[in-house]
Amino acid sequence: MAYIELRQVTKYFGDVTAVDHLNLTMEHGECLAMLGPSGCGKTTTLRMVAGFEDIDDGEIFVGERCLSSKRKNFYVPPEERNFGMVFQAFAVWPHLSVYENVAFPLRIRKLPREEVEKRTKEALKNTNLLDVASNRPDDLSGGGKQRVALARALAIRPDVMLLDEPLSSLDPHFREEMRFEIKDLQRRLGFSILYVTHDQSEAMALSDRILVMRAGVMQQTGTPLEVYGEPNSRFVFEFVGLSSFIEVAFAEGGMRIGDGVYPWPGGVLPASAIRAAGRGLLAVRPFEIEFRNVDGNKGVPGIVTRKVFLGETIDYRLQVGDKAEIRVQKTRRNPGPAVGDNIKLEFPRPHWYRVDG
Ligand SMILES: Nc1ncnc2c1ncn2[C@@H]1O[C@H](COP(=O)(O)OP(=O)(O)O)[C@@H](O)[C@H]1O
Ligand SMILES: [Mg+2]
Questions:
Q1: Residue 165 CA, closest ligand 1 atom number
Q2: Which range of residues forms the domain containing residue 93?
Q3: Residue 334 belongs to domain with CATH number
Q4: 133, CA 20 to 30 Å: which among 57, 88, 143, 283?
Q5: Residue range 210-245, pLDDT digits in tens
Q6: What is the pTM of this model?
């Protein structure tokens, strides 16, 4: 049995279904990232797991233990769940020292004095805060404050860390640094992480598995590589990376774009259900589009409408057919075409989705 299991977990706020019959499993020691746009139900899910929110349907288990069950009308309060939580905002107490911030949850749990001291020091050491233990959180940078929140969550020696966009208010530099620190702590201390974020690169960098959510509904779960490489819908394709789409009509032996009919790109036929619709959405990653000579017989014609230098990357816009404007990216080491150039494009790794999907 999985270590954490959510079965059909549901939450309504009035007419809004914030979380819709969510099934989720996590193994012990796993880091699962819940990824989705703002408002898709991530925080609500985390709050239900933590016990701050009751559930309108379903059940939540950790280990063999049932924590919430609508059917059995059963509910374990948050302080008996042994989860560490870190939120987006720096939820540290400004009037308490760093030390007291970390010790606080242990004191309310009425642990013996020596145990409070031992665990507080251990958590401060693990987060490199021992030297500033007597400072106020406001003396620290944003990254430092978030580290206090992390230390406080660690001090209870949680089985599971529930992290709700904990890095989103940090500078990009600290954000990357903290990703590594969180991963490193997990490796050393062995807790499981349920990590909520709208940032796909964060989800990829941190997690063993990603669960993509949309409007309260789970869209796909898989390893970062699976979700990035084989998105099961246009939504997931678009959400987990840069994307280019071309709507095409299906003709005998290939796809029609504008006046031309071209062989199936990469030799990949759309699924029969999509073919039956008569048209489909060709989806490609901007880095997985090849430029070909306009005089050659390979590829789909396009014209360069914009070329932007982004440092290591050159970002192109191309007009393809009469409607689609697509994005292509190349490393700067490849000189590439100029604005106004006619060129042909090949799509070696195409994905196909329904136009209305
Ligand atoms: N306490 C609440 N009262 C009413 N609606 C809420 C409440 N909390 C969240 N919602 C709604 O539930 C949906 C999911 O919210 P939330 O879980 O915060 O999303 P996310 O964390 O993914 O941004 C949103 O439509 C939001 O407006
Ligand atoms: Mg949220």
A1: 21
A2: 4-234
A3: 2.40.50.100
A4: 88
A5: 999 999 999 999 999 999 999 999 999 999 999 999
A6: 0.91
